[in-house]
Amino acid sequence: MKVAMLVSGGVDSSVALRLVQQQGHEVTAFYLKIWLEDELSFLGTCPWEEDLQYVRAVCEQAGVELQVIPLQKEYHERVIAYTIEAVKEGRTPNPDMLCNTMIKFGAFYETVGKQYDMIATGHYAQVTNKDGVFYLAQTPDAIKDQTYFLARLSQEQLSRVMFPIGQYTKEQVRQLAQKFDLPNKERKDSQGLCFLGKIKFRDFIEQHVGKRQGNLVEYETGAVLGVHDGFWFYTVGQRQGIGLSGGPWYVVSKDSERNIVFISKEYHTPDKQRDSFLIEHCYWFNDVAPLDREIFVKLRHGAHMHRARVVTTEKGMQVMLTERDQGIAAGQFAVFYENGLCLGSAVIGQFS
Prior knowledge:
alpha/beta, 17 strands, Rossmann fold, 30% strand, single chain, Elongation Factor Tu (Ef-tu), domain 3, 5-stranded parallel sheet, 6-stranded antiparallel β-barrel, 352 residues, SH3 type barrels
């Protein structure tokens, strides 16, 4: 097949490229440039040039053609705008989720990818077909598994993707990097949002939303304990960066209309624990909600999953957890699983 291989300069996508090539496919490598250099240059530097050096070295070693595709405009319109709007509404956005759906398997496919049979990436995920429906399947590496970030992909997108390293653990991928003697075999994994590079997310938000002073209010007493620069800089469960002595202090909730951040030293007491929440903008791979049966849900990327049940109520669709979670944040995504398959996802709404 003709395969478009998305490469980032990291070990994962580089190993994936060599595996696709090893399978005998005709491979062209693509580096997606989404760094907003003009808009954010004063805030710091982005490692995209370093990334591209590694990409070129990997592709040259493999004898694979490399193309650099600029998608800054599309990224700003489809991901940045969503991020800023969600922050203004007091929600905690997940740009990486939208980047996969809207950019890697969206804008790239629309501009270039449709000329190829498949699009391959270095994600830790697998795709399986069950009764004519494409699902994401979890990988052997529970910590690295990235099905959480891919849970908004459409059936058409899933039908055209390849995840060559999905059957491997991170350790095994590192071993393959040594076997292939990749130029970046010792490179550490990158962290943070792809378009920000080393820039702090807070600085990015300040540039777009600004500052507006409001009160830090103790949840239990209503006493004003201090001031903050804007509720949009805080997320539920946050402990660092509150700036008050006598803590530790935690963010319990936010009032976006009054620009109030409610904090507490007793964050883990029963009256503040969350074990149910409403969901909206639901997306199920088979178009059917997994109602009234025990399944699993991830509330953030990582290995931990809650046992849960999805039910319908007068307020809407509700998720009931069997154990409490201290970090449920409106605007984040809940991703649902059953028997190792990802069933779909939803946006976390209000607490029920």
